[in-house]
Amino acid sequence: MKRYLLFTVFISGMTTLAAELTAGRLIGNVFGTSNLVWASIIGLILIYLTLGYFLGGKWADKDPTPLAMYRILAWAAFTVGLVPYVAVPVLRSAAEAFEALSVGIMAGSFIVVLILFIVPITLLGTVSPFAIRLSVDDAAKAGQISGQIYAVSTLGSFIGTFLPTLVFIPTIGTRLTFFLFGMILLIVALAGLARFANTREMFKLIWMPVALTAIAVAFSSSALKSSNGQVYETESEYNYIQVQESNGYTLLRLNDGQGVHSIYHPDTLYYNGPWEQFMAGPYFYANRSPDSIQRMAIIGLAAGTAARQATAVYGEDLQIDGYELDGRIVEVGRKYFDMNLPNLNVIIGDGRLNLDRSSARYDIIGIDAYRPPYIPPHMTTLEFFEICTSHLTDRGVLTLNVGSVPGDRRLVDGLATTMAQIFPSIHIMDIPGSLNTMIFATKQPTTPENFSANLTRLAQDLALDPLLVTTMATTYANLESGYTTTTVFTDDLAPIEWIVNDMVVNFVLEGGLEFLE
Questions:
Q1: Where are the domains of the chain?
Q2: What class has domain 278-507?
C-alpha cells in the first residue's frame, strides 16, 4: 500500500502544479500574463491549498481509510478536468468585455474564473495529510514519513511545472492539458479504489472519465475565443495567438487581445502605427540618405510588419535580422502576414541574449518587444542599452516603442533617462491617435533640425517610396520637447513592474484600457 500511496502523492503533486500553470494560461488567454494576473493566480492557489491542508488533516483523522482518500481524489481529478469547460462562457463574456473595454464585466469575470479553482485545488490539498495519516503506523517514524511524502509530492510538483508549459499546452492546448492531467489523476484514484476498497466503489465513479471524455469531445471544435473576424487561433509555450480579419486588414493579437502586434493589408503598407517609425530614426543625422542604410535589426519581429515596410523603402539589399522569442508567431507571420522576405533572417530566441551573441552591426535597431502590460525588465536597463550601442554603426540609431497613459509618462521618462546615459541625443514622439511613444536614441549628437532638413530634401525625391516621407512627416509633426530626468534602470534595480502595474491599475480604475494598444 505504501508504494502506491507515494505514487498517488507524486501524481497529485504533479497535477496540482500542472493545474496552476495551466490556469495561468487559461486566464492569460483573456486577461493577459502580467505579474498582476500571475500574483492573483498564485496567491489564491496557495489559499486554496492552505484550506485543503487544514480540511484534509481533520478529514483524515475522522475517516482514516483509503476509501475516503481516493474518493476525494477522484472528485479532485474530475473537477480539474472540468474547470476549462465550465469556464468557457465566463471567458467568452470576458473576451467580449475586453473588446468593449467594459471594466466591470472584466473584473467580475476574472473573479469568477479564479473561484472556479477553489474546489479542485482545495481537494488536491487534502491528499498529503491523508497520505501521512494512512502511512504512519509508528509514531516514532512520523517525522520521517511526513518528510518522505512531502518530498515525493514536491518532486511531482517539479515535473508538473514543466510538462504543461513546455510540452502539452503548445501541442494539445489549454483545455486538453487540463483534461489530460485530470484524467491521469482520475485513473490513479479509481485504481486506488479498486485496490484498497473494492471494485464496486470504483464502478460507482466510473461515470467520471466517461463524462469528462464526452465533454472534451463536445468542445473539441470550439474556439477559445469567439472574437469578431477571427480566422485562426493557436497556443505556443509563450502566447495565445489570434489572427483576425477586419475591413480587409489582417491583425495579430496575443493573449488578452488588446494590442495589435502586427498588421497586414495587400494594398497598403502605411498603418499610422509604431511599425513604420523604426525607419525614421536615421534621419536625425545630417545629410542622411536612404542608400546609407544597409542593415537593420528588429527585436520583437512578431509577424514582420516593420520588416515589410523597411524592405519596401530600402529594397531587398537591406539585410534585416528579426529577433523573435516565439517561433509559433513566426509560423503565423509567414502564413497569414506574407512574412516571406528574402532579405529577412529570423532568429528565434530571447532578443537580448541573441543580440549580445551576434557579431553584426546595424544602422537601425528597432525594439518592439514590449507586450504591455508585461515589459521584460532585462530589455529596459543600462546594461541592455550598452549591448545595443555596441551593435550599432557609427551613425546608427536605436528606436524603442513603448506605451504610456495620459498624464503618466514615468515609463517613457525612465527609459529615456536610462538611454541618455549612453546615447548623446534622445528624441521622443507620440504616435497620434494612440498611446504609443517612440524613443529615438542616436549614437552621435543629432538634432530635430537635421531631421527637418532631410525631410524637405527627401520629399523632392520622386524615386523614393512615399512611405518614408509620409512616416517622417508624422514623426516630425509629433516630436515632443523633451522628457523628465528620473530613475536610471539597471540590471540590479529596474522597477519596471512597479511602474507598469501602478499605471495599469490607475488607468483601469479611471475606466480606460486603450494604452494596452
A1: 2-218, 278-507
A2: alpha beta
- Residues with Cβ within 8 Å of 485's Cβ and at least 6 positions away in sequence, in order, are 413, 417, 420
Q: Give the pLDDT of residue 514.
A: 44
**Cell for 262?**
502586427
The CA-atom distances, in angstroms, between 75 and each of 59, 206, 288, 445, 499 are: 15, 12, 69, 67, 42
Other Cβ atoms less than 10 A from the Cβ of 143: the count is: 10
Residue in the structure block whose three cell numbers are 532568429: 347
Q: N- to C-terminal Cα distance for the chain?
A: 56
Tens of pLDDT, residues 40-82: 788 888 999 999 999 999 999 999 999 999 999 999 999 999 9
Q: How far is CA 85 from CA 38, 109, 233, in A?
A: 21, 15, 17
- Burial group, residue 13, by CB count within 10 angstroms (0-12, 13-18, 19+): buried
Task: Determine the Cα–Cα distance for residues 78 and 166; give it in Å rounded to an integer.
Answer: 24
pTM of the entire predicted model: 0.81
CATH topology for 2-218?
Answer: Growth Hormone; Chain: A; (1.20.1250)
